[in-house]
Amino acid sequence: MRIGIDAMGGDHAPAEPVAGALAAREMLKEGDRIVLIGDEKAIREKLAATPNWAEWIEICHAPENIGMDESPVVALRQKPNSSIAVMAEMQADGRLDAGISAGSTGAFVAASQMRLRRLRGAHRPGIAVVAPTFHGPVVICDVGANVNCRPTHLYQYGVMASVYSKSICGIKNPRVGLLSIGEEDAKGTDLVKQTRALLKADKRINYIGNVEGRDVFGGVVDVMVTEGFVGNVMLKLMEGMAGGVMKSMLKELVSEMPQLAEKVMRAAKAVAVRYDYNEYGGAPLLGVGGISIICHGASDYRAIKNAVRVVEEYSRQQVNEQIAELLADGAEAQ
After folding, report:
1. N or C: which end of the chain has fewer CB within 10 A?
2. What pLDDT was estimated at residue 308?
3. H or E segment at 59?
4. Could you tell me the strand order of the sheet in which 283-286 lies?
């Protein structure tokens, strides 16, 4: 495989994307290559301390970069030589088998949709995030790609995320829930009610009904379906709350039991690693005709390295092929 990494994307670029590419060597199969896309001079500076990097890394010069605050579509049009635009073009013409970026999510999603097109049968791509919980991983889809959803879009998110949960998270029969304001069938917007009917009618999906936001951490579901606006707000709330609760607990524990401070901090670090988004390697854009992995803007080298692992597993499990087959079968059944 040839895996592209946006070397200029993220809060810590190019240092962390390049470090991730170096660390990912252990993830690669024989013959696999990583292509770092971005400012060649800056990339080479970060590679200089590793004399044998050329054994598995190539560089593709892309002099422009898209900022987080820029309009995605406008930026792609005005900056055709940006790292995200060049990476998507390389995927489209077969020079790359996958793309990874911690840069502008909007630009990466737009570039992937424009260049890679959609999988056969897919109406709107969705971002699938794996939320680490005490009961195991929960796939939430969508968390920001599509904020103007129709029932068919949400239904397809359930199908696609179920495939991802089964193939990548190793859950044999993922429980699929539809995010609503209550478990009762009568609750929710028209969008939720119409989506519920579609999910319930598809017997290939282990649909368990409406679920609430708290059920993400309650061991109730393995896949949670929602539209992009709500999903993104939910994701950011979870991130902020997790950090705040952890800091508060540490402060209280160390204050009440100073003699155990060292043990408390050691235990806290172990928990933090277990539920750190960097360990999950990014979120796939499900429904596009390729492999696009979206990493958190604050990603460090571990997230980039693990994103390479996700790409390898995604390809090996033929996730896109499975999704296309299920969507085609579902369309025929309808």
Report:
1. C
2. 96
3. strand 57-61
4. 57-61, 33-38, 2-6, 98-101, 292-294, 283-286, 126-131, 138-141, 223-225, 175-179, 206-211
The total of other beta-carbon atoms located within 10 Å of residue 55's CB is 9
Rounded to two decimals, the pTM is 0.90
In the chain, the percentage of residues whose pLDDT exceeds 70 is 92
Low-confidence winner among 78-92, 116-130, 249-263 (lowest mean pLDDT): 249-263
Alpha-carbon gap, residue 206 to 190, rounded angstroms? 22
Decide if 250 contacts 264 (C-beta within 8 A): yes
Helix, strand, coil % (nearest 5) of the chain?
Answer: 50, 15, 35
Per DSSP bridges, beta strands 126-131 and 138-141 are antiparallel
- CA 280 to chain CA centroid, Å, is 9
Residues 6+ apart with CB under 8 A from 241: none
Beta strands in 155-204 (DSSP E): 175-179
Using CA atoms, how far apart are residues 176 and 164, in angstroms rounded to an integer? 12
| Token pair in block for residue 75 | 């930026």
The model's pLDDT over 246-278, given as tens digits with 9 standing for 90+, comes to 777 777 777 777 777 777 677 666 666 666 666
Domains and CATH numbers, the chain: 1-121+287-316 (3.40.718.10)
Q: Which class for 152: exposed (0-12), middle (13-18), buried (19 or more C-beta within 10 A)? A: middle
Could you tell me the two tokens for 298? 């604050």
pLDDT of residue 274: 61
Contacts of 139 (CB under 8 A, 6+ apart): 128, 129, 130, 131, 161, 164, 165, 169, 174, 222, 223, 224
- Asked if pLDDT for residue 189 goes beyond 90, the answer is yes
Q: From CA 228, how far away is CA 105, in angstroms rounded?
A: 12
CB 180 within 8 A of CB 210: yes
Q: From the centroid of its chain, how far is CA 242?
A: 19
